[in-house]
Amino acid sequence: MGPLSGLKVIEFAGLGPVPFCGMILSDLGADVVRVDRKRNTEAYRATCFQLDSRGRRSIALDLKRPEATETCLMLFEKADIVFEGYRPGVMERLGLGPDVALTRNQRLVYGRMTGWGQTGSYAHAAGHDINYIAISGILNAIGPENHPFPPLNLVGDYGGALLLTTGMLSAYLHTCETGEGQVVDTAISDAGAYLATLYYGMHAAGQWIDRRDSNLLDGGAPFYGAFRCADDRWVAIGAIEPKFFAVLLEKLGLREIADRQMDHHHWRETRVLLEETFAQKTQQEWCALLEGTDACFAPVMSFAEAPTHPHNRSRGAFVEIDGIPQPAPTPRFSRTPGGIQGPPPEIGAHTRTILTQWGMTDKQIDALVACGAI
Question: How far apart are CA 257 and CA 241, in angstroms?
Fold first, then answer.
C-alpha cells in the first residue's frame, strides 16, 4: 500500500522528529525497520500508546558489539534510506557513519537529524525543541506580550521531521536517476528558521513588528485569535479579509466597527468588544450561529474532542486501532493510498524475521544470539 511501497528504510530509534519521520514513511507504504538498542529491551518497551512508532518492525541490537555493527552494515547494503537522530559523531564512533555506510552501498540515502546540526558552535551541546526554535527567531514571536510561549514541539521537532522526510525522498529521486547516494543533514534549528521565511520577508519590508501580540497573525489583530465563551470554552476567529470580517460583524451585530479593521490604534478596543460579545454565548451557541459561514470560525477542540468533530468524522481524519483514536495518514492519494501498517512494535519483536528476510541464514542469526549481539 502507498506510493512508497517497496522502499526499504532503516530507522535508528530516537525521540521527537525521528519517530515522526519514520511514521510518515511507513504510512506512505515504505518498509521501515527500526533499530532499537538491545539494552533497552526490558526497560523501555514500546507501548500501544506511542503512536508515532506505529507501522514499523523492530530489531534489537547491542550496538557496542562489532557483530551488531556488521549486522547493521549488512542491512545498509540492502536499504534505500537510513536515518538517525544522534548527536554529531555518535554514528561514527559506532562504526556506522555515512562514510562507511556509503562505501558499503553507494546508492544509499543517509539522513541525519540533530538539534543544532553537524557543525556550528552549538553542535555538540544538549538541547530540546524550545532551545532550537529560540535561536531561529520563532520563539520570540509566539506568545503573549509579556513572555514567549513554546508552541508544543510542533515547530522545531516536527517541522524538522517534515523537512528531513522531504530531503531524503528528494535525494532518493536523485539516486534513482544517477545511482549516487548522499547525506541529508537536517538541523531542527535550521528547520525553525526555514519555516519562518515568510516572516523574515515581512520583517525586512517593515510589515512585522518585532514584538509579540502586535501583528496580524500573532494575536495582535483582534480578528485573528481565540475568544472565551460563556461556558469557559473557546472559539477561534480568523476573519482577515475585509469581506470575511464583514460577515463576522454582521453575525455579531457589530457592523458599525467594520471600518476599523486595519487601524492598529483601535485593535485593543476592538478586541475588548469582541471578547465581551463572545462571552455572552456558549461555544455551542456560537457554533449554531457561525459554523459553515464565511466568518472564518471554528470551535476550539481538545485532543479528546477532535476525533468526534463532525467535519473530522466526515473526512475520516482520525481512525481507531485497538480502541485508540489516532490521526489518519495524510496527504491522500487517488491511486496509491497510504495506510497504517500496524501498531507500535515491542522492541526487538521482529529481529529474527527481519534478518531472515534481509538475507541472513538461521546459522548466522543463531551466532548473533549466542554472542549477545541481538
Answer: 15
The pTM score is: 0.93
DSSP state of 87: P
Task: Report residue 278 as a C-alpha cell.
Answer: 463572545
pLDDT band, very low/low/confident/very high, at 47 (cuts 50, 70, 90): low
Q: For helices 188-195 and 159-178, give the axis angle rounded to 10 degrees.
A: 100
Asked about 31 being catalytic, the answer comes back as: no
- Name residue 94's amino acid: L
With CA atoms as reference, report the closest residue to 286 among 227, 245, 246: 227
Nearest to 169 by CA among 53, 55, 30: 30
115: confidence class by pLDDT, cuts 50, 70, 90: very high
Tens digit of pLDDT for each residue in 229-247? 999 999 999 999 999 999 9
Is there a catalytic annotation at residue 157?
yes
β-bridge partners, 113 = 186
Spatial distance between the Cα atoms of 326 and 307, rounded to a whole number of angstroms: 8
Task: Map residue 226 onto helix, strand or coil.
Answer: strand
* pLDDT tens-digit map of 180-207: 999 999 999 999 999 999 999 999 999 9
Helices (H) and strands (E) in the chain, counts: 15, 11
- Three-state SS for 363? helix
Strand (E) or helix (H) holding 315? helix 310-315
**Considering the chain, what percentage of its residues have pLDDT values greater than 90?**
91
User: Which is nearest to 351 in space by CA: 339, 360, 340?
Assistant: 360
Q: List, in order of start, the domains of the chain with CATH numbers.
A: 8-195+321-371 (3.40.50.10540), 224-228+234-299 (3.30.1540.10)
Catalytic residue among 157, 185, 190, 218: 157
Q: Whats the size of the chain, residue-wise?
A: 374
Q: Which residues pair with 225 in a beta bridge?
A: 237
pLDDT (average), residues 34-48: 65
Rounded mean pLDDT, 59-87: 95
